[in-house]
């Protein structure tokens, strides 16, 4: 079963380091999230995804966990997190934590144990070969650093050894089967972590690299999906209100096979997401659909999206997002007017949308040095800009001591400046989330179908349930005639649009939601 609450949910992703620092140590904290729950509620978001906030050496911003059951000191205590669940729930906001099941930090005690020459309970917890001179064909590994005579496999950075869920195609004697005691015990350990936080009030998990568990499972990932199906069974029986969203970007595998409730529509695996917002690497300029007059073709997105939507419909949701902590912010290439249309689209599509903190005010991607393994991702992880006080209201620490610098430009966007301005991106975003909450036909389940999407022709017209949505990212006025428009009225628009006698007129860079009268 799919939790009912997902039907009308808009998520807000928080990178906790950079949201709000309440004790002037220069780093965001859980208390900071608690203090901004009312802001999040006003924004129209009724669920959070918080990036990993657990004990970690922070070689990968916390995606290198050294204790899954302990909040990192810099963010607060387990009790603070439990208080955050409570305070969020009191405002109708759900909280997803970030589960990193594919690897731990190399400082995790499980790993320390598994590195010992003497066999012990954790010897099979990670992927190890049976000799210091034996590598792992086709996979990154490290050898020669530990007492144990073997090489261990990496899942991401050098500090992130791969947990052992077994191999599908076992070509070497040291490769565990997916149903071996050691692989099953890793799986149970991860389920135990989930239970730990679910029992304390969390509402589910965003699952990091969810497709990375079973090795040699590349063809269709069915062995990895089977593990998630088992996790889903646990949720269905013991935590039916909990939700899982995968970093996978393959709804067939994640939702249909694995049983995830939601799967991110990410910009990797060559999908259509980039064609909407960040197609600047194509020859001949930026062809992003939402870039004004880019000649962008919505058909490129649709040909990728529609089969995924059809396959997963009724089973789970595709999650569109403004961006995340790994991608450039959408304002990197889009202007405020372009962002309004892009968000209008994201917030009127089926599934469960996510807004990344700061995107609601058009925070910029900043050119800053790498921090905690961020590299080029760091520019999208800078502190939230609340107002024009010191550090844009993020922290009272001296500016040199904060996690990352804030945007020093004179016109740096802030919540304070945009709050009272009806023309701001923040106000538009608030109106759009409110619209979605007020019309069931714009929410997760209402059917989506394309009415007209000509190659480079504007507007793009689609229906959601009984509603028609129209978007015109070009700078030209457009008119479109359709029998489907007859007798309808506009219930929401960006710039002034009209429908008369079945003809829709839209100025350049506009958007409209049209209902039956
Ligand atoms: C995911 C996270 C990313 C992290 C990586 C390794 O892609 O989103 O931030 O570095 O996994 O855990
Ligand atoms: Ca702090």
CATH C-level class of the largest domain is Alpha Beta
> How big is the Rg?
24 Å
**Any guess at the CATH architecture of the largest domain?**
Alpha-Beta Barrel
Q: Return the CATH topology of the largest domain.
A: TIM Barrel
Overall average pLDDT: 96
Structure annotation, total helices: 12
Described by the principal axes of the CA atoms, the overall outline is: globular
Strand order of the largest sheet: 11-10-9-8-5-2-1-12
Kindly state the percentage of residues in helix: 10-25%
The CATH homologous superfamily of the largest domain is named: Glycosidases
Instruction: Give the CA-CA distance, first to last residue.
Output: 35 Å
Q: Compute the number of structural domains.
A: 3
Structural class: alpha/beta
Q: Biggest sheet, in brief?
A: 8 strands, parallel
Query: What portion of residues belong to β-strands?
Result: 15-25%
Poorly predicted segments: none
Explain the overall architecture.
It contains twelve helices and 20 strands. It is α/β, with parallel strands linked by helices and 517 residues long. The protein folds into three domains: 4-101 and 183-438, TIM Barrel (Alpha-Beta Barrel), CATH 3.20.20; 103-164, Oligo-1,6-glucosidase, domain 2 (Alpha-Beta Complex), CATH 3.90.400; 447-516, Immunoglobulin-like (Sandwich), CATH 2.60.40.1180. An eight-stranded parallel beta sheet has the order 11-10-9-8-5-2-1-12, with helices on one face. Helix 7 runs parallel beside helix 9 and helix 10 runs parallel beside helix 12 (425-438). The model has no long low-confidence stretch (mean pLDDT 96). Bound molecules: alpha-D-glucopyranose and calcium ion.
């Amino acid at each position: 079963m799919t939790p009912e609450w997902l039907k009308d949910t808009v998520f807000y992703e928080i990178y906790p380091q950079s949201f709000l620092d309440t004790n002037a140590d220069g780093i965001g904290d859980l208390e900071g999230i608690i203090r901004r729950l009312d802001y999040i509620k006003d924004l129209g978001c009724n669920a959070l995804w918080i990036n990993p906030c657990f004990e970690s050496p922070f070689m990968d911003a916390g995606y290198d966990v050294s204790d899954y059951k302990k909040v990192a000191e810099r963010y607060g205590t387990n009790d603070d997190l439990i208080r955050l669940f409570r305070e969020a729930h009191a405002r109708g906001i759900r909280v997803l934590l970030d589960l990193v099941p594919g690897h731990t930090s190399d400082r995790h005690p499980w790993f320390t144990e598994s590195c010992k020459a003497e066999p012990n309970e954790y010897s099979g917890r990670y992927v190890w070969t049976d000799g210091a001179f034996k590598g792992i064909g086709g996979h990154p590994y490290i050898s020669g650093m530990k007492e144990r005579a073997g090489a261990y496999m990496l899942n991401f950075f050098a500090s992130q050894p791969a947990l052992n869920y077994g191999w599908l195609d076992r070509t070497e004697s040291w490769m565990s089967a997916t149903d071996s005691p050691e692989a099953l015990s890793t799986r149970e350990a991860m389920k135990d972590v989930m239970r730990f936080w679910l029992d304390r009030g969390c509402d589910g998990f965003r699952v990091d690299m969810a497709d990375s568990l079973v090795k040699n499972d590349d063809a269709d990932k069915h062995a990895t999906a089977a593990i998630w199906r088992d996790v889903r069974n646990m949720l269905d029986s013991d935590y039916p209100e909990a939700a899982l969203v995968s970093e996978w970007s393959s709804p067939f595998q994640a939702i249909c096979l694995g049983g995830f409730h939601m799967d991110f529509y990410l910009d990797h695996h060559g999908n259509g997401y980039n064609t909407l917002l960040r197609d600047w690497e194509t020859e001949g300029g930026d062809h992003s659909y939402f870039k004004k007059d880019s000649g962008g073709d919505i058909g490129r997105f649709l040909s990728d999206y529609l089969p995924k939507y059809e396959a997963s419909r009724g089973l789970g949701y595709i999650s569109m997002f403004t961006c995340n902590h790994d991608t450039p912010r959408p304002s990197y290439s889009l202007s405020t007017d372009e962002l309004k249309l892009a968000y209008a689209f994201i917030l009127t599509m089926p599934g469960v949308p996510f807004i990344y903190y700061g995107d609601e005010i058009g925070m910029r991607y900043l050119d800053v040095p790498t921090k905690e393994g961020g590299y080029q991702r760091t520019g999208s992880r800078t502190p939230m800009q609340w107002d024009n006080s010191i550090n844009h209201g993020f922290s009272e620490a001296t500016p040199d001591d904060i996690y990352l610098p804030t945007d020093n430009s004179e016109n740096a966007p802030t919540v304070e400046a945009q709050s009272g301005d009806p023309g701001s991106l923040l106000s538009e975003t608030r109106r759009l989330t409110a619209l979605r909450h007020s019309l069931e036909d714009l929410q997760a389940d209402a059917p989506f179908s394309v009415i007209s999407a000509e190659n480079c022709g504007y507007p793009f017209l689609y229906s959601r349930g009984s509603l028609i949505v129209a978007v015109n990212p070009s700078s030209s006025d457009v008119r479109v005639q359709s029998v489907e428009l007859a007798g309808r009225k506009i219930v929401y628009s960006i710039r002034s649009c009209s429908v008369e006698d079945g003809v829709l007129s839209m100025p350049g860079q506009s958007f409209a939601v049209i209902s039956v009268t």
